[in-house]
Amino acid sequence: MTDPFQTAIPVIKKLEDAGYEAYFVGGSVRDFLLKRMINDVDIATSATPDEVKKIFPKTVDIGIEHGTVLVLVNNGAYEITTFRTESEYEDYRRPKEVTFIRNLKDDLQRRDFTMNAIAMDKNRKLIDPFNGHLAIQNKIIQTVGSPSDRFQEDALRMMRAVRFVSQLSFQIEAGTVTALASLVHLLDKIAVERKNRVRKTVNR
Length: 204
Fold this sequence. Notes:
The strands form 4 sheets. Strands 3-4-5-2-1-10-11 form a 7-stranded mixed sheet. A two-stranded antiparallel ribbon has the order 6-9. It has a two-stranded antiparallel ribbon with strand order 7-8. Strand 10 and strand 11 form a beta hairpin. It is 40% helix and 22% strand. It contains 9 helices and 13 strands.
């Protein structure tokens, strides 16, 4: 079977050769640590979208306002996203603006759960400032920082927590459950059946 990380290493190297940092991030790293099947990989970089586009001749602006460029190379397509921070959120869903940064830790800090806030370099060394690997080993779903803050930023993160319980047979950390129970009303704009799934989980 093709190793998606190995296949993507030339993309990482090309960014590094141009003087930028680049790492595998997100669900692919989490699933790698869980020994789950990985279909594709996402890459985070210190390069801005314009800098990425200067490095790679074939790109598509799929979410450039949020820092994401789709890079087309001989062996596939890769979403490359610039390290960023996010401002105050609106409608409990989207940040009003994003700011591109050069610091990996600050980028990881804006993510939802610790198990999704792990980066991995091309040599498979983990960068794990929020102990996400430990959370995976303990089968715990825990937010990066305050669960109330994370859920008020984006209410759909509550849905993700419940989905991970179902998919991974993990448990939600106690403080995160408390925040879920107190903030479930933020899902008023979400479909009723989804909201009921959250309520059933936090009321067990």
